[in-house]
Design brief:
Blueprint (H helix, E strand, L loop, with lengths): L8 H28 L4 H9 L18 H14 L1 H21 L2 H13 L4 E4 L16 E5 L2 E12 L6 E7 L9 E7 L5 E7 L9 E12 L3 E2 L5 H37 L1 E2 L2 E2 L4 H28 L10 H29 L9 H6 L2 H6 L4 H15 L3
Parallel strand pairs: 1-4
Antiparallel strand pairs: 2-3, 3-7, 4-5, 5-8, 6-7, 9-10
């Protein structure tokens, strides 16, 4: 893998160590995960003992005490070798654990973060609903009605990464439906609670080893102490979290693109046609050069975005500079990855069209990355709106 110009020695050590771990321990799981939609529960939970859960959490709560940038480097390395596990990792690590770390009170952190860090708890984010995708806040139908010391939760959450295997969810629901997006609250919901269930596990085109579900909540009691932040103040949590989620999708794209470049180089040098390696043909060389240029620019902007959002204060986000560059990073990286995988598939020819091949598995990943955490179209709207409000600075 090529070296980025702006990683210091500690960051390079984090990336290289995570790459070695993923190559040795996670890559051998990838084929079965894709073939059978198999979830490697023990291997995922073992990440906690290896120090790969709770990257951003403080040591006193079981974490590594590192930053968002370090978390992105781990995801980049994991995604080179097993992108499905990488997606489940970032859903646990960033969408759930890091959001609880940033927005919960001390008692909630002490109750949930040690388990999320040691792997005894698996987390997910429950935001999207059957009728609410791009308009996740305005169209939210799930409700949480106060009843003494509890809230009574009712509703459905769809496309939930880790939903079938998660122990807890960071969940958003309307506590004051009349106030629209400003009537939403955040909760930590224990998924073994009565009334909480997996309505269906979803079979997907890509990321097949990362389990996805529709979750159902039918008169599910959630203790009021599990509300994260103030009542009707969940929008601050979700918008800040979405910016960090977008920033953390980009390392997924970078890792997959790096692996596609490596596979394309190996295939072009080993595949012979007309008596010579296809790497000798200028059209193949052109595609390799295009892939390399895309990978380098993806990686550079991804690092820039992670560094810029590294110290984003809790509750900040959803507007301004952070909102703009996180949307730009994921839009550019996902679109560039589409082009990388198209070039890589052309280099591999008919081999890329065979389901069991690694390059085919990589190709099937791209569409989710152009849709998740806001579609490409939503990302463009965010960028344009921020430009029109504040200019190019």
């Amino acid at each position: 893998m090529s070296h980025a110009f702006d990683l210091n020695d500690d960051q390079r050590a984090i990336l290289d160590a995570a790459d070695r771990y993923a190559r040795e321990r996670l890559a051998p799981l990838a084929q079965r995960m894709d073939d059978e939609e198999w979830w490697p529960d023990a291997e995922f939970r073992a990440l906690g003992k290896e120090g790969y859960l709770g990257i951003t959490a403080p040591p006193e709560l079981g974490g590594a005490g590192l930053d968002l940038f370090a978390s992105g480097l781990v995801l980049q390395a994991f995604s080179r070798w097993n992108y499905a596990l990488g997606l489940s990792w970032v859903a646990h690590e960033n969408l759930c654990l890091n959001n609880i770390l940033r927005n919960a009170d001390d008692a909630q952190r002490e109750r949930y973060l040690p388990g999320l860090c040691d792997g005894s708890l698996i987390g997910c984010l429950a935001l999207t609903e059957p009728g609410a995708g791009s308009d996740a806040l305005g169209s939210m139908a799930a409700t949480a009605a106060r009843d003494g010391g509890d809230y009574i939760l009712n509703g459905r959450k769809l496309y939930i990464t880790n939903g079938p295997v998660a122990d807890i969810a960071l969940l958003y629901a309307k506590t004051d439906p009349g106030r629209g997006a400003h009537g939403i609250s955040a909760f930590v919901v224990e998924l073994d609670s009565p009334g909480a269930s997996v309505a269906q596990k979803l079979s997907k085109m890509g990321f097949r080893g990362s389990p996805t579900a529709e979750l159902a909540f039918d008169d599910c009691r959630v203790p009021a102490r599990n509300r994260v932040g103030g009542e009707n103040e969940g929008v601050r949590c979700v918008m800040s979290g979405l910016d960090l989620e977008r920033a953390m999708i980009s390392p997924l794209c970078v890792g997959i693109a790096e692996r596609a470049l490596q596979l394309s180089l190996e295939y072009a040098q080993s595949r012979e046609q007309f008596g010579q390696a296809i790497a000798n043909f200028q059209m193949i060389q052109s595609r390799l050069a295009d892939i390399f240029a895309l990978v380098e620019t993806m990686r550079t902007y991804n690092y820039y975005c992670l560094a810029a959002l590294n110290d984003l204060p809790p509750g900040e986000g959803g507007r301004g500079f952070a909102h703009k560059i996180s949307a730009t990073s994921v839009m550019f990286c996902a679109n560039a990855l589409n082009r990388v995988l198209d070039h890589a598939s052309q280099i591999h020819g008919g081999y890329a069209y065979i389901w069991e091949t690694e390059i085919n598995r990589l190709y099937r990943a791209i569409k989710l990355l152009e849709i998740g955490a806001g579609t490409t179209e939503v990302r463009k709207i965010i960028i344009a709106e921020e430009l029109l409000k504040g200019g190019v600075a």
